[in-house]
Amino acid sequence: MEIRVFLIGDIVGKPGRTILKNKLPDFIEARRVDFVIANGENAAQGSGITENLFREIIESGVDCVTCGDHVWKRREILTVLERDKRLLRPLNYPQESVGRGVGIFETHAGIRIGVLTLVGRIFMGPADCPFRAAQRAVDALKLETPVRFVEIHAEATSEKMALAWKLNGHVSCVFGSHTHVPTADERVLSGGTAYITDIGMTGPYDSVIGRDKESVIYKFETSMHAPFNVATGDVRLSGALVTVDSQTGKALAIERVMIFA
């Protein structure tokens, strides 16, 4: 049986949440999507996520919400991370951190999907090795389901690509997030693992990675503080649609998706 999993890039502020709510339900129906994973760590005014916004994203049609290095920006989310398995933080943060980095979910047809999310270490904050953390988690998920998705929230293209090759043949998909810039390198690797370096940003593209252009330019030119407000123009929903054989867990196809408001 083939299943379709839709991966949605970093949801930025109200513009990102609005296009998600307006466009995702129709896309799910039109493309017969079985499961949706979305990165929501920038949902709250461009940095962090709150309980209400987590609920809003879920109600828009998302099944699993992942986070990255901004997961701790809003303290109120800690209780949600503790109790709701649909919200994941990076697996390779310390074990003492609140929440979980891996989950097992079911589609409406009863197909089990394993999801784990990691944060990179190059040009990022401190974290445990994502390669070793991924290997341990994938080994455990092999006992639960052949359908396994891995998000690597990272700056460096090489780090993301190296992880994909390490996990080639062991997971259905490795996809990158964090840079807010969609890449054009989607492919299915030799072992049946779908890969894309970054699935982009769901938010305003008339911006610098989602923020007001003039403020960012001012910061670069002067090195002085400037409020990085979320921009509003040219809003798009960015991601990738992956088709997987649910029996073998091998990816059959991966397609970049860009939906305009």
Textual characterization of the structure:
The protein is of the alpha/beta class. The chain has a single domain, classed as Purple Acid Phosphatase, chain A, domain 2 (4-Layer Sandwich). 26% of the residues lie in helices and 28% in strands. It has six helices and 14 strands. It has helices at residues 13-30, 51-59, 77-83, 130-141, 157-167, 213-222, and strands at 2-8, 10-11, 35-39, 64-66, 87-88, 102-106, 112-119, 148-153, 173-177, 187-188, 194-196, 201-204, 235-245, 251-260. The strands form two sheets. Strands 1, 2, 3, 4, 5, 12, 13 and 14 form an eight-stranded mixed sheet that branches. Strands 6-7-8-9-11-10 form a six-stranded mixed sheet, covered by helices on one side. Strand 6 and strand 7 form a beta hairpin. It is globular.
Layout of helices and strands:
Layout: E1 2-8, E2 10-11, H1 13-30, E3 35-39, H2 51-59, E4 64-66, H3 77-83, E5 87-88, E6 102-106, E7 112-119, H4 130-141, E8 148-153, H5 157-167, E9 173-177, E10 187-188, E11 194-196, E12 201-204, H6 213-222, E13 235-245, E14 251-260
Parallel strand pairs: 1-3, 2-12, 3-4, 4-5, 7-8, 8-9, 9-11
Antiparallel strand pairs: 1-13, 6-7, 10-11, 12-13, 13-14
